[in-house]
Each structure stands twice: as C-alpha cells, then as structure tokens.
Amino acid sequence: MLQLGRAQRVRLMLYAVLALGYFIFSPAALAEERGQTVPEWPLLTEVRELIEKNYAGEVDPYSLEEGAIRGMIRALGDPYSDYLSPREVEAFQQVLKGEYSGTGMVVAEENGVFTIRAVLPSSPAARQGIRPGGVLLRVDGKPLKGLPLEEVILLLRGEPGTRVTVEITWPWDAQPRSFTLVRELIRQPMAEAALLEGGVGYLAIWSFTSRTPEEVASSLEELEGKGARGLVLDLRGNSGGYLGAAVEVASLFLLEGTPVAQVVDKQGWVEVLRSEGPGIDWPVVVLVDGGTASAAELLAGALRDTGAALLVGTRTFGKGSIQSLLPLRDGGALKLTTAHYLTPAGRQIDGEGLEPDFSVDDPEEQLRTAVHLLQHRHPSAA
C-alpha cells in the first residue's frame, strides 16, 4: 500500500502554499532587535484625524482601518497578496480542507472566463441540472468579469441553508440561464480514478488540500489492483492549494531523494524540496491547461524535469509564488507572497507557465493524445 510517513507529512505541511501557522514575531520586534525604528506613518494618522473631524457623514473607524489595510496590499501590485476579513479566513480554511458550504460546482478560470469544470454528485448544483462545460457569468447579480478566482469562489460559498443565484451560459444555449441554489455542506473529493481501455489508468486531481495525498495514494492503489500499467494524470483546471500536499503527491511518483522543487525566499536563500518516496515505475502523461496553476504546476514541472512524465495540453497558468497566511489580532489575516519556487531544473514558472511537450488545444483530443503516447511510446502500458 502506498503510504506517507507522519514525519514527512508534518515537515512538508510547513511549506504550505498558504501557511496557516501563527508567527511569534512582529515587524516592530524585528526592527527593535536590529536597532531600527518602525515608521509612525504620521500622514496616515493625519488623514484619519482630518476625516473624523471634517467629514459630513458618519465615520466608521473599522471601515477606515480595513480600507487602509486593503490599500496597502493593493499598493504592493501583487495580485496574489490580499487582506482577508475574519469571515473570509474561515471560508478560506474550509476550502483548504476540501470541506465547505456551497453549491457543488468546481469552477476553473482561464483567460478571465470562469468555466464549470465539474459538478459534484448529489450537490445543490447537480440537483438543479447544472452540467459541466457552462460559463459562470454572474453570482447574485454581480458580473464576474475581472474578478480573481478566489473572490468568485467566495461568492459561491456561504452559510448552509442560504440561497445564491447564478447565471450560466452553455455553448448549446441561445440565452444564459438563471438558477437559485440552496447552499449546503460539501465534502469535495480531491481525486477521481478510472481504468481506461488498454490498461491505462486515469487519475484527476481537483485541488491540493490536506486530504489530497491520502486520496491520491488510495486511487493509485486501486488502479494498480485493477491492472493499470500506465497513467494519465489530469491536472487541468487544478488551481493549486497546499504546496506541501503537492510535494507529498510527488513523493508517490518519484523515488526517495529526487528533487521536487526549489523554494527561494525573500533573502534569496534556496531550499531544495525532495521526494521521500515510495515512487512508482509506471509511465505517466500529465494533462495541463491554462487553469493548471501554482501547486499543480509544481507537480507537473517536477514530474517532467525528473523524466517521470510528459506534458500534454496547453501552456499552464504561470503562478510560481508562495503565499503565507499571517494572522491578525481580530481574526483576519494577510495573505502575502513570501517566496517563489522553481522546478527541479531551475525553471521559472511565475509569469511564464509550463509549455507542454505536446501542444493540443481540444480537451478530448488531449486525453486521446495522452492515451496514444502511453500505448505507443511505452509498450509496457498497452
């Protein structure tokens, strides 16, 4: 049975794309230790005092504070750094666990278009007849154009029993259709496995959460038991998640000691993350597209750079930055970019993405190409 050791699991989770640990130091403490002073930001204080003294309407000091925080984050010019309110932190942590209250639609973003990649069985969306392949246009009347994927996901989430109205269009419909769904607790599967013709295994990974490595290990064992001799690993539409989970999954494919990624911190220090095994000896082809991002790109890059897999599909998203979730005293948090990662060969992913070995645009043709490669380039998989 493919298993992951507890020590490996603990250590790798320290390298989470979104680290949820609390930090025991503060900028003020670090500055004092280094003999530096922290700016008082007198202009910010002056502006606040002028607003409180002169503004003709009501002044909510908490709204001013939140606005100032969001303004500072926007000034960084980093699309992946953000301020999360206490409610958003709670929803975000649910997402990372793979459990949340929502609709059951798996949404991926590519070139600003939000596509329904999958609909979970028995979910509110499934019961309303919503099918994969549709484009999500509005949530509760709010247009989604220009929004980041994280915000769209939060719009779909909410307390169990609450309602949300979505507007969706499908290629075969003349007009968009509107659906009102009642949110409920969803436990999203992280992996889906099937045995294709000719002894080719198929494994789709939806996201990298704390549950993903165990589900992938179980799926690989299931496919092995069914006689699979090669694998199509589908990472299309996988927007990432825990970096540690992606490294754990890579360990299921790569022998112990094989490099998985290089992590470069703010000071330029480089740490090489390595597989702890057990690895498999199957030929692997990885499906990727513009929705393959972050931790999913790390896994795809690791498998290709180490000669364990070929990539088929379209260029990946190009997110090679690592965000840490830094808690605030009110329960909110700052999601800040704190490091970047490179592939084992030192290739940069951020802003560039991964170019597949075989460029194929049509999704169905991508799968056919992957199966063909396994059956003809790797006769042992046929």
pLDDT below 50 for ≥5 consecutive residues: which ranges?
Answer: 3-34
What structural category do the secondary elements indicate?
Answer: alpha/beta
Radius of gyration over C-alpha positions, nearest whole angstrom: 22 Å
CATH topology of the largest domain: 2-enoyl-CoA Hydratase, Chain A, domain 1
SS strand fraction? 25-35%
Classified by CATH, the class of the largest domain is Alpha Beta
Largest sheet: 6 strands, mixed
Mean pLDDT: 87
CATH level-4 homologous superfamily of the largest domain: 2-enoyl-CoA Hydratase, Chain A, domain 1
Q: How large is the count of helical segments?
A: 11
Euclidean distance between termini CA atoms: 24 Å
What secondary-structure arrangement, pairings included, does this model have?
Elements lengths: L5 H8 L4 E2 L7 H7 L8 H13 L6 H15 L6 E3 L1 H12 L1 E4 L2 E6 L2 E7 L4 H4 L7 E5 L2 E2 L5 H8 L6 E7 L7 E6 L1 E4 L3 E5 L4 E6 L6 H14 L4 E5 L8 H11 L5 E7 L4 E5 L9 E5 L6 H11 L3 E5 L7 E7 L5 E10 L15 E2 L3 H15 L5
Parallel strand pairs: 1-18, 12-13, 13-16, 16-17, 17-20
Antiparallel strand pairs: 2-19, 3-10, 4-5, 6-7, 6-8, 8-9, 11-12, 14-15, 14-19, 18-19
Helix pairs in contact: 1-9, 8-9, 9-10
Descriptive terms for the model:
single chain; 382 residues; alpha/beta; Pdz3 Domain; 2-enoyl-CoA Hydratase, Chain A, domain 1; 2 domains; 6-stranded mixed beta sheet; globular
Describe the structure concisely.
The protein is an alpha/beta fold and 382 residues long. It contains eleven helices and 20 strands.
